[in-house]
User: Which sequence fits this backbone?
């Protein structure tokens, strides 16, 4: 889709295709270090999130975002359903996790410090899909919703592709 | 009858092996990959495919030709599409040739912008100096060569205005940039003078955050993302092409959109 934009906006399509030859080097632009770097031993989630230049983001802007796995294939793990504060006051992102084509997914609560913003998407960087499958299904008892207008801070990562 | 174009000795098929990574990286461009046979390479370039450097230089020559045509076709008065402020992605998407943890923030208080080359005023600029110049805002799409894009809102000093203030020779060929993260870049003067090319100081109305190039980065709507260096520390007006980070790795120099 983006490529379509490019050719439409720019020079004639033919030139663009010629240019592709020159883009052979584009593979170099890919990340050497995928967005998901395992936590260094002994480092807490909060400490690792702090190294990722957390940026303010409006909670309402997170709802519905795709949640990806920080690997080159960027597998979709789920979608953001809501943002809550758990009984300890910690901010958690409730993700509709797993399933197929949106069916049979279940909500799990992932600490916001285990996640990053990658443009319009989010990634879970601190847990593998295997670990996430062990997460209990989210229960709202004892939690409070974070208002859509609230700003929370979320770390960044470069694209994983 | 034997074709007069058939070489006496068939080319060594090992020549393609030498370029396997290069050809594999064309995976998504099936059309080209399909056409990039040994024979096509010989026909296309007339080069000696037994010499890997010959193939590479032939491909780079094609790239340079494309750059030249793009530069010829560039219309300095044509504006890139703009978008309503409500579409601004906050925060913007981070990208660099390294991960975000390796970002080294720049101190805006001690930061200076060096100016050199074909200009009459080579005095260094402070952030306050730049903030005192007239500012322009634009909501434009950032389009990355990797295929992703997002809409961002940028505010800053039009590069044209800055170049006029420092008495730059606007007939010079290039404007080159140096950055705090060692990411040199260079653009053509026509793109530098385009009204949608800014020395950006703000994003979405707020001061640029550290990962996005504070205190100042280049933001142009007429080039691909990798032609937008962040944490700019020096600007040079020159007639000499000095290359850039990705350009030195084979990316096209002009990269217009």
Assistant:
């Amino acid at each position: 889709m983006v490529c379509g934009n490019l050719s439409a906006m720019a020079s004639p399509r033919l030139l663009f295709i010629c240019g592709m030859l020159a883009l052979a080097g584009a593979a170099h632009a890919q990340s050497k270090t995928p967005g998901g770097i395992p936590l260094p031993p002994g480092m807490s989630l909060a400490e690792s999130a702090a190294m990722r230049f957390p940026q303010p983001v409006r909670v309402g802007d997170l709802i519905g975002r795709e949640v990806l796995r920080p690997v080159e294939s960027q597998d979709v793990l789920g979608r953001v359903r809501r943002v809550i504060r758990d009984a300890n006051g910690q901010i958690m992102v409730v993700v509709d996790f797993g399933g197929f084509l949106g069916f049979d997914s279940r909500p799990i609560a992932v600490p916001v410090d285990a996640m990053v913003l990658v443009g319009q998407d989010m990634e879970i960087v601190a847990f593998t899909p295997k670990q996430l499958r062990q997460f209990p299904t989210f229960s709202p008892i004892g939690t409070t919703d974070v208002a859509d207008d609230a700003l929370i801070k979320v770390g960044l990562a470069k694209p994983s592709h | 009858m034997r074709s007069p174009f058939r070489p006496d000795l068939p080319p060594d098929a090992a020549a393609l092996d030498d370029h396997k990574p290069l050809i594999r990286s064309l995976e998504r461009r099936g059309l080209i990959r399909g056409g990039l046979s040994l024979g096509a390479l010989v026909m296309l370039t007339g080069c000696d495919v037994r010499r890997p450097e010959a193939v590479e230089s032939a491909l780079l020559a094609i790239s340079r030709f494309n750059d030249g045509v793009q530069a010829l076709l560039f219309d300095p008065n044509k504006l890139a599409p703009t978008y309503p402020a409500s579409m601004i992605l906050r925060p913007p998407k981070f990208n660099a040739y390294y991960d975000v943890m390796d970002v080294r923030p720049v101190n805006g208080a001690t930061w200076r912008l060096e100016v050199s080359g074909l200009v009459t005023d080579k005095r260094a600029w402070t952030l306050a100096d730049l903030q005192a110049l007239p500012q322009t805002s634009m909501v434009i799409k950032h389009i990355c060569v990797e295929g992703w894009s997002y809409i961002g809102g940028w505010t800053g000093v039009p590069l044209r205005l800055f170049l006029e203030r420092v008495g730059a020779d606007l007939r010079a060929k290039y404007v080159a940039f140096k950055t705090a993260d060692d990411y040199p870049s260079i653009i053509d003067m026509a793109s530098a003078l385009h009204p949608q090319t800014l020395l950006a100081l703000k994003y979405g109305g707020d001061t640029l955050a550290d990962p996005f190039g504070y205190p100042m980065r280049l933001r142009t709507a007429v080039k691909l993302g990798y032609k937008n260096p962040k944490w700019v520390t020096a600007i040079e007006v020159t007639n000499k092409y000095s290359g850039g980070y990705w350009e030195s790795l084979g990316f096209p120099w002009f990269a217009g959109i």
The CA atoms of residues 72 and 161 of chain A lie 4 Å apart. Chain A has two domains: 1-30, 45-156. Chain A has five helices and nine strands. The interface with chain B takes residues 2-3, 5-6, 9-11, 15, 17-33, 35, 37, 51-53, 55-58, 61, 117-120, 155-159, 161 of chain A (CB under 8 Å).
